Amino acid sequence: MAEKKIRMSAKGLADLQEQLEYLKNVRRKEVAEKLKEARSQGDLSENAEYDAAKDEQGLLEAEIIDIEKKIELAEVVSDEDLSTDEIGVGSFVKLKDHELDEILDLQIVGSTEADPENGKVSEDSPLGVAALKKKVGDIIEVEAPNDHIIQMEVLEISK
What DSSP line would sit under 85-103, residue for residue? Predict the structure, then answer.
């Protein structure tokens, strides 16, 4: 079965590639140096520093593999692919929460780029799923905790 593509912006992909380079070229050397130092202290069977460095190395390699997989599955969504007629991954949206009488400015992004505190909502989140394919004037309904339904009106869609 083919693995699901991970949609992201060109910047999101570039950020992942930059992070991968850092982990491979900087962090690997730092961890290798810690291992070398710990080994030089003699008996490895009771060497807590050696065990900690080995654990750190394992976590680092797992993170590298995870990022490489995300890059391999990346599907870049470009601005040219975006529509201002309906919400898609990469769209900037202005929503009005009628209950709180607030205007929200958000961007719908791929799951690897989600950063709710900075207005980047994952396409896989309840709000992201509810917003996809909606048009200006549509009402988005999102189920919140306690079976409360939040209704938001789409005011604007931009690239």
Answer: SS--TT-EEEEEETTTTEE
Tokens 């009005």 locate to: 96
Taking 90 as the threshold, does the pLDDT of residue 76 lie above it? no
- Are residues 94 and 68 located together in one domain of the fold? no
CA angle in degrees (0–180, nearest 5) for 113-119-122: 40
Same domain, 88 and 152: yes
Question: Collapsing DSSP states into helix, strand and coil, what is residue 33?
Answer: helix
- The domain of 65 spans 6-76
Nearest to 12 by CA among 93, 74, 59: 74
Number of alpha helices (DSSP H) and beta strands (DSSP E) in the chain: 4, 7
Claim: this prediction has a pTM higher than 0.70: no
Does residue 65 share a domain with residue 109? no
pLDDT tens column, 2-13: 678 888 888 888
Q: Is residue 1 part of a domain?
A: no
| Residue ending a domain, choose from 76, 101, 133 | 76
Q: How far apart are CA 148 and CA 126, in angstroms?
A: 13
Cβ atoms of residues 121 and 128 within 8 Å: yes
